[in-house]
Amino acid sequence: MLSLVFVVISSYLIGSIPFGIIISKHFRGFDIRTKGSGNIGSTNAFRVLGWKLGLTVQILDLAKGLGAVLLATYFFNGLPFHNATPFEDITIFRLIAGCFAILGHVYTVFAGFRGGKGISTAAGMLIGVAPIEIAVVAGIFLLVVFLSGYVSLGSIIAAIMFPTTMFIRENAFGAHIVGYSTLIVFAIALAVFLIYTHRANIKRLIEKREHRFDRLRIFSRG
User: How many other β-carbons are positioned within 10 Å of the β-carbon of residue 60?
Assistant: First the structure.
């Protein structure tokens, strides 16, 4: 039980590290929350800090999710409760750690419980849990961004495509992995949560007010 409590608290605190704020203050001399959409995540970082610092924020946010999974792996010594899922105990331990890292990113204790949207941190967690699916989803994300110029749209579609990719891999390509059906349910729940965190972006996309990164539209005309 103590190891689980330690990993849960540590994962939340790791996820809570507001890299967007830290980098914007250190390299640009302002708080990223005062610019653009006011969000501390990588999309707004790309918007107001440029692609180099934006990419740095994205990588660091991704590392938070992966770091939580690695931390859980290192401190795992069994579950303090009965595992009723088809997953191995260590997989459950990793998922718990990753989820708390995502919660820390979205509701960071270091910034008034107002953080990022959770996509990068979720991707970091999933690299340690479902690397093949997350690689496919990353390709889809980049394709959508390069076609549309909207990072938020790429993030939303990526959230949807993660459980979709898992479903297709299992049913069309015959991937028989223990616990796969249960993981798909988890992936759907995670996707719903990530889409919920993007609700303001969805509204701006519908109203055609969302910021577009035209420099990323490598397939656009002209």
Answer: 20
